[in-house]
Write a structure and sequence with these properties.
227 residues; alpha/beta; Rossmann fold; DNA polymerase, domain 1; 2 domains; six-stranded parallel β-sheet; binds 2-phosphoglycolic acid; binds magnesium ion; Phosphoglycolate phosphatase
């Protein structure tokens, strides 16, 4: 039987990346004469990757954006964001210990994010974390991305895990819907970048600090699925 697995979302769940996302988004918007976005508004734009983040900023300011212009801005975003990594981004308090405890208890760890794979791998490497993960899958790893449940299921497969012995942990409606569609229990953190309180989306559990992510919680959620 394969090992149980915990799959983490990245932005707003494992790593507080908002200051750097904001800097890079505003750098892009500055190139096109749009107004800068503030930290609270940014939360509504994050969750479906850099491309959608830029699109949402244009929509909010009722500015047209051609596909060519979007491609150009995504390029600028990747260059700016990638060049300043890990910048001010940091793991949330307690995340490292929680991952240590899960690994010691025999869990595989993986990341399923709508951030581009290359940026995700480099960010985690910059934070000294990449070797923990059996797979790091981004928005461009497969031909589908969250909320498509296949993004989560294929991440688990790539990590050598089993979707029947898996738990997702995320911060957004996207993560919760993805896990539910895959039939996988989902823990929501309430300190990430959700526009509405995560309880709105009815995750299996909500935690407010990584000290609450106990091995027993993951065991119990997996046990409930297989009961
Ligand atoms: O950066 C985003 O928009 C989403 O990234 P996440 O899936 O890791 O939250
Ligand atoms: Mg997130």
């Amino acid at each position: 039987m394969s090992k149980p697995i915990v799959v983490f979302d990245l932005d707003g769940t494992l790593v507080d990346t908002a200051p750097d996302l904001l800097d890079s988004l505003n750098h892009c918007l500055g190139e096109t004469g749009l107004q800068k976005v503030d930290p609270v508004t940014l939360r509504r734009y994050v969750g479906q990757g850099g491309r959608v983040m830029i699109e949402r900023a244009f929509e909010a300011q009722q500015k047209l954006l051609s596909p060519e212009q979007l491609d150009w801005l995504v390029g600028i975003f990747i260059e700016h964001y990638g060049a300043n990594m890990p910048g001010h981004s940091a793991l949330y308090e307690g995340a490292e210990q929680a991952m240590e405890d899960l690994s010691s208890a025999g869990y595989l760890l993986a990341v399923c994010t709508n951030k581009f794979e290359g940026l995700s791998v480099n960010l985690l490497a910059g934070l000294g974390q990449s070797s923990r993960f059996s797979a790091i899958c981004g928005s461009d790893t497969f031909a589908f991305r969250k909320p498509d449940p296949r993004h989560l299921v294929e991440t688990i497969r790539k990590a050598g895990g089993d979707a029947e012995r898996a738990v997702m942990i995320g911060d957004s409606q996207t993560d919760i819907n993805t896990a539910k569609a895959a039939g996988i229990p989902v823990i929501a953190v309430d300190f990430g970048y959700s526009d509405l309180p995560v309880a709105t989306y009815e995750p299996s559990r909500i935690i407010s600090h990584y000290r609450e992510l106990k091995v027993k919680l993951a065991d119990d959620l997996i046990g409930a699925v297989n009961a």
